[in-house]
Design goal:
Elements (H helix, E strand, L loop, with lengths): L1 H71 L85 H5 L5 E5 L8 E4 L2 E3 L4 E2 L2 E6 L3 E6 L2 E6 L8
Antiparallel strand pairs: 1-2, 2-3, 4-5, 5-6, 6-7
Length: about 230
């Protein structure tokens, strides 16, 4: 029995040892890629920083060269215009008169003044008399028609032109005469009120009575005083 127990204990110890070794192996494999990733990331950062520094140096070098190139360009000197030689002072020419030529003297001749014409000697022709024009031939048995007479229109009476027309547009009738309204020329009026110079005397159901300048006017609905 003791040997069996020892064998079982050895097996358990071996299993425990194998389990621990497998754990160590797995943890090492897990940590390896993380370490490699960290190393790769560092290299990438270093490369990016170095490239940025190189680019900055190139830009600075180009900026420094640009003004030096512009200053190095020299404009060609302008050629001075050639001055033509000044001509020598010319001596004045002297013209000698030919010998033996007759000398002429200029004599001034004053013009003879013209005699003024007398007003009596100049005679203007008389104006022609008014001659009668040719007579128009008369045709026998023909008379020119007389123009038609236009009669002036008769003057209108001042009262008719001064008095405006009255038109009864409607009636608002009520039993009480004080509340009755007559709409004349679009204006509501009660008994005693004045519309277009006419005084409203009475308002009936279908007509109204007015007075103007001592003349009584009776208006029906829809009719005007101008037609009367």
């Amino acid at each position: 029995m003791s040997s069996i127990l020892k064998a079982l204990k050895k097996l358990e110890d071996e299993k425990i040892a194998q389990h621990e070794e497998s754990k160590r192996h797995v943890s090492g494999e897990i940590l390896k890629p993380q370490v490699e990733k960290g190393v790769n990331a560092r290299w990438l950062w270093l490369l990016a920083g170095a490239s940025a520094v190189v680019i900055l140096l190139l830009i600075v070098a180009l900026l420094r060269k640009a003004p030096s190139d512009t200053t190095s360009i020299k404009t060609p000197p302008l050629a001075a215009p050639e001055l033509s030689p000044t001509p020598a002072a010319m001596e004045p020419l002297t013209v000698k008169a030919a010998e033996g030529a007759p000398k002429t003297t200029n004599h001034l001749i004053s013009p003879v003044p013209a005699k003024p014409l007398n007003s009596q000697t100049v005679q203007t022709p008389p104006p022609p008399h008014n001659l009668p024009g040719p007579a128009e031939p008369e045709l026998p048995g023909f008379k020119a028609p007389e123009p038609p007479r236009v009669e002036a229109p008769a003057p209108k009476s001042l009262n008719a032109s001064a008095e405006p027309a009255l038109t009864l547009n409607g009636i608002a009738w009520n039993r009480d005469s004080a509340d009755r309204l007559a709409i004349i020329n679009g204006q509501p009026a009660r008994v005693g009120e004045i519309v277009a110079g006419a005084v409203v005397v009475e308002v009936l159901q279908d007509r109204a009575r007015l007075t103007r300048n001592g003349k009584s006017i009776e208006l029906s609905i829809g009719k005007s005083s101008a037609k009367e």
